[in-house]
Design goal:
By secondary structure, the protein is mainly alpha-helical. The protein contains 24 helices and six strands. Helix 2 crosses helix 6, helix 11 crosses helix 18 and helix 16 packs antiparallel against helix 17.
Length: 570
């Protein structure tokens, strides 16, 4: 039979700490997020087969379709997506349809299953019928929804549930772009607004697990095949700087065009199914002249990076694709704008690079190099997330030579766009993030009820059993009225484990620290942080007030740090 000392040591070795639990949850979410993303891809391909009879890039086989089919398929797809939203609203009656950004920055981490499935179904139909939107939005939403569902089943407190939802979003984006660093940084930079390790560590872990899982299921081929990058001359840094400034100036116009289109569509066509049908019809009409407007633009980006396409063709596709994206997003189609943004940046960068090559000639890189930098610069200007843009393009190329011009162009685009308009592509969803200062908020919403307690007459053996069953450094001692009398520390009993004769003689009242610190339930966050940082444990007891000291719960250090990070992001 094992001794109390052996049981306690085994429990310490097996039981996870708060940080280890957070990483374990992140790993689970990363795996589930990858599976949901791969499943969404497969469903999109199946739906595309229903619309066109074949799978692959819609723009590739659009030329072979009859003109009436080119016009009708996107319109019917939009109508079907609108009907899914309309009837789905009845199925999910009374449930909010918050996306992952709202759930993390505004809500409590709750994303309802039915509304998310409705939105994902609508996105699936719009994408499969040729809509000019990205699939990363639905992937991130599905992954976040599953993360929220798992976290609520695990009864995670609000700050940890919010972080878990953020991990789900990072997993979805990493899976969509085969870019684990960019997936984590996108959520940290745009959604959380902080790269503190309390949040960044789990985000990175979820992204890595998601990317590895996706690569095992779909292969390790990069999203885009890119030629080797070379900075031919230091003189090129000037054109790259100018490219960043130009795209930084154009990005706010693009963001504004999306918002104006959405306002006009909503005012002119109030019916959701009809509105999405009109948006799809516009995409279909544009495809009569330029079939490349169908889809998210990934194949077209690949062609530009490979040096295919004349200047006139790229310029034409750029204008038509811009109009199709504005019409599709403005009509309310559910999907991402990330990939279309990359396409617009690549097209403009290629055109700019052609002009630079004609002037600098042998002192300039090929237009495809400027297309790569243009992708990052326009993304940085539109999202106000230069770190995400830099690392995403670096992950796509794995070419260190691109880093210098890419950093220069992305940072220039970011500052230029911010100077013109502080609103970004996602600021509409995050404009509400104005959290009160830490000195004004209290810990009341962070209190965990039912902390680990014993009575003063608890025996040494009972204390050992409790410490063995729960990963805590302290157990609180309370009287019959639940008033906090003190706490017994794990280190207090370790020195007595070698003396089993004391197991029934030593009581909790003899081991407890009567001067143990506690927090009142109305303590401001800043005050609580100071006391927690001065304490060697992971939690502090919370009492109703400092006079009566009735124990009402406990406050975890990690919950407080996550909350403060989110507040600073606001």
């Amino acid at each position: 039979m094992s001794t109390p000392a052996q049981r306690l040591r085994l429990a310490e070795w097996l039981r996870l700490s708060d940080t280890q639990r957070a990483l374990a949850w992140a790993g689970i979410v990363g795996f589930v997020g990858a599976l949901s993303s791969v499943g969404f891809r497969m469903l999109a391909q199946a739906a595309q087969s229903l619309f066109f009879g074949v799978e692959g890039d819609p723009a590739r086989f659009a030329d072979e379709l009859h003109w009436a089919r080119k016009l009708l398929v996107p319109a019917l797809g939009g109508l079907a997506a609108g009907l899914v939203i309309r009837f789905g609203a009845h199925l999910a009656k009374g449930q909010s349809s918050a996306d992952f950004m709202e759930a993390v920055s505004l809500g409590d981490g709750t994303i309802r299953v039915r509304p998310s499935l409705v939105k994902s179904g609508a996105s699936l139909l719009s994408i499969a019928s040729g809509g000019s939107i990205g699939r990363e939005g639905a992937m991130a939403q599905l992954s976040s929804m599953l993360s929220s569902w798992l976290g609520r089943r695990g009864r995670l407190p609000k700050p940890r549930l919010q972080l878990l939802v953020a991990c789900g979003a990072a997993a979805g984006i990493a899976s969509a772009y085969n870019a684990p660093i960019a997936g984590a940084l996108f959520v940290a930079e745009i959604v959380l607004g902080t790269i503190a390790m309390e949040s960044l560590g789990p985000l990175v872990f979820a992204s890595v697990v998601s990317t590895v899982t996706t690569r095992e299921l779909l292969g390790q081929a990069p999203l885009f095949e890119t030629p080797p990058f070379e900075l031919v001359s230091p003189l090129e840094l000037g054109p790259y700087l100018l490219l960043g400034a130009m795209l930084g100036a154009l990005a706010p116009l693009f963001v504004r065009a999306l918002r104006v289109a959405e306002q006009h569509f909503t005012r002119l066509v109030p019916s959701v199914p009809l509105r999405l049908c009109v948006g799809g019809a516009i995409v279909g009409a544009l495809s009569l002249l330029r079939p490349e407007v169908w889809g998210n633009g990934n194949p077209q980006i690949g062609a530009i990076l490979s040096g295919e396409g004349a200047v006139g063709l790229i310029a034409s596709v750029l204008l038509f694709k811009l109009a199709a994206t504005v019409a599709c997003v403005g009509s309310g189609a559910v999907g991402g704008v990330f990939t279309p943004t990359l396409f617009l940046g690549a097209s403009f960068g290629a055109l700019f690079g052609s002009a630079v090559s004609s002037v600098l000639q042998r002192w300039s890189a090929s237009p495809s190099a400027y297309a790569l930098v243009g992708m990052g610069a326009f993304l940085a200007g539109a999202t106000h997330a230069p770190l995400t843009a830099i690392l995403m393009l670096f992950e796509m190329t794995l070419d260190y030579g691109i880093v210098l011009p890419l950093m220069l162009a992305c940072v220039t685009a970011y500052y230029t766009a911010r100077a013109i308009d502080p609103a970004s592509l996602y600021s509409g969803k995050l404009a509400h993030r104005h959290a009160p200062a830490a000195s004004e908020r209290t810990i009341r919403e962070l209190i965990r009820p039912s902390p680990l307690t014993v009575r003063p007459d608890a025996t040494f053996e009972q204390l050992v059993e409790l410490f063995s069953a729960h990963r805590h450094n302290y157990i609180y001692v309370v009287d019959e009225r639940a008033r906090l009398l003190g706490a017994v520390g794990l280190h207090d009993i370790k020195s007595l484990l070698s003396r089993p004769e004391l197991s029934q003689l030593v009581l909790a009242s003899e081991l407890m620290h009567t001067d143990f610190p506690a927090l009142p339930a109305d303590a401001p966050l800043g005050v609580a942080l100071g006391r927690l940082l001065a304490h060697d444990g992971e939690r502090l007891p919370v009492v109703n007030d400092e006079r009566e000291r009735v124990l009402v719960g406990a406050l975890a250090k990690r919950d407080l740090l996550l909350t403060l990070n989110l507040d600073r992001a606001g």
